[in-house]
Amino acid sequence: MTRLFCFLGLTAQLSAFLVGNPAQPALLPDGIFLNESPTWSFRAAFLDDYIYAQHYQAEFFGALDEKPPVLSLATDAALFTLNLHRWVDFYGIIGSAKLQMDEEIYTRRELAWGFGAKILLFAWRGLTIGCDVKYFESDQKPLYFVSDGKALDIVTNNVYLQYQDVQGSLGFAYRTTFICPYVQCSYIGAKISPRPSTFLVNVPGYEDPMDASIRSFIPKTRWGLAIGATLIAGTKGTISLESRFFNENAIDGSLELRF
Questions:
Q1: CA 221, CA 39: separation in Å to the nearest integer?
Q2: 26 and 230 in contact (C-beta within 8 Å)?
Q3: Of 101, 135, 149, 183, which has the maximum CB count within 10 A?
């Protein structure tokens, strides 16, 4: 069962989340129901985030990995934002996420949530420099594992992969009349911890369940780059597209409205 133990250790690193436009706190002056407010506003957004490739490594050295695994994570979520003085955004994240690793590990769609803040550091004409920090979490429940082409059913019912991620970014944006492109440098401080770390699986060809284990993992590459653009739909809404590289390969689309 040595190969099984090594294989199950490859279920780490769910990856991170949308980086976003650093100029977002100042993009929308008016609301659907409320006129321009110099002190506060409320925004709601829906996003579809898809991480199609991300690599990881064992938290502690000595793990035997047969090949670098590739993970994908699909997240659908809503963002609710409180803006203060068009300089600071405080936001909450609520939605669901589903993970797949190659053709070997699948999870069910589970709750995903988080919170964060985005702050403008400098603004001059169309140029904006801003930073963002956020926390994101999702407990992923594996449906089954596949090893040597065989499906391994999990006997233990309460097996979860707890993903916790703290992410920071710093970047700049330049706004024109209808579009605001941006570039950001991002840092991911993530960890995945199995709960529990050992459990039982049914292996075809064996009558009795067998022990399996999962170890903790961290990102293989922590620093990354995000490039995106926000289309400004009048004064009440925005549509954004984003692509991320290096620490994760991902694409994201979002629609945001100010109320």
A1: 39
A2: no
A3: 101
Give the type of residue at 85.
H
- Residue 230, number of CB atoms within 10 A of its CB: 24
d(CA 42, CA 44): 7
CB count in 10 Å sphere of residue 100: 14
- DSSP, collapsed to helix, strand or coil, labels residue 38 as coil
Beta bridge partners of 66: none
- Which runs of E-coded beta strand occur in the chain? 40-53, 56-58, 71-84, 88-101, 105-107, 110-124, 127-140, 142-147, 150-154, 160-174, 179-195, 198-202, 210-213, 217-219, 223-233, 237-245, 249-258
Both tokens of 9, joined, read: 């250790």
